[in-house]
Amino acid sequence: MLLEGKKLLITGVLTDDSIAFAVARVAQEEGAEILLTGVGRGMSLTQRVAKRLPTTPDVLDMDVNDPAAVETVRGSVMDRWGRLDGLVHAIAFAPSDALGGNFLNTPWESVATAFQTSAYSLKALSVGMLEPMKAAGAASVVSLDFDGRYAWPIYDWMGVSKAGLESVTRYLARDLGEFGIRVNTVSAGPIRTMAGKSIPGFDQIADKWLNRAPLGWSFTDATPVGQMVCFLLSDWAPMTSGELIHVDGGYHAMGTDIRVG
Predict the structure, then answer these.
(1) Residue 153 has pLDDT above 50, yes or no
(2) Contact between 70 and 44 (Cβ < 8 Å)
(3) Residue 126: enclosing H or E segment and its boundaries?
(4) Which of 8, 22, 33, 242 makes an SS bond possible with 222, Cβ 3.0 to 4.6 Å?
(5) What's the mean per-residue pLDDT of the chain?
(6) What DSSP string describes 71-123?
(7) What is the pLDDT of residues 39-63, one digit of tens each?
(8) 69 by DSSP, 3-state: which?
(9) Class of residue 87 by CB neighbours under 10 A (exposed 0-12, middle 13-18, buried 19+)
(10) Do residues 59 and 233 touch, judged by C-beta distance below 8 A?
């Protein structure tokens, strides 16, 4: 199996329609042993949905913006496994006033929250788990993106944060490569997850996808994204790092719509 014997830490599992859940399910199906993380009021959701996986994993409490919490999880990983082969960053958050067409009016406090949680946290978590990843001899960090190269309708400061996430990916790939740690991000097409549905005007983006994606697209099946993440976590991608990889039905490669006549 693709991930036989791998020890993975997966963040961001809240519901069984989430991309992170798809990653966790595919990872277990491919032979990995996993730990999940949750935080605050979301812990109960993560614990509940963990029972829907093929094997129920343990859930560790971790606020990615709290260095002490990250350190506690690092210690738990070392005590349990002595190493970490892979880390999945599926964490993003923006206050409501940072989304929905409010770009020009969003205060710095909300921007700072969005950027810290959605972009800087990739660095914080990767460095926080550096000891067990170094102990593995080679490891893979994969984050989840929504193509930050473009100014999407209604995405506003989350879009800026995703652009930051992509840049953090490249700099981490540069600085962690000497330890055999690969860092990549996967840009998924729109999925009707809890996070996606919470974005005001989500359908403005989603409704156009089917007309432009040459392979088509499912708004409810995150399995193809989970499969790509697991491929990047595997030994089959040993020389891939610093990449933004699209799993969007080919949407990103198409030009703008041109209507003649």
Answers:
(1) yes
(2) no
(3) helix 121-128
(4) 22
(5) 93
(6) HHHHHHHHHHTS--SEEEE------GGGSSS-GGG--HHHHHHHHIIIIIHHH
(7) 998 999 999 999 999 999 999 999 9
(8) helix
(9) buried
(10) no
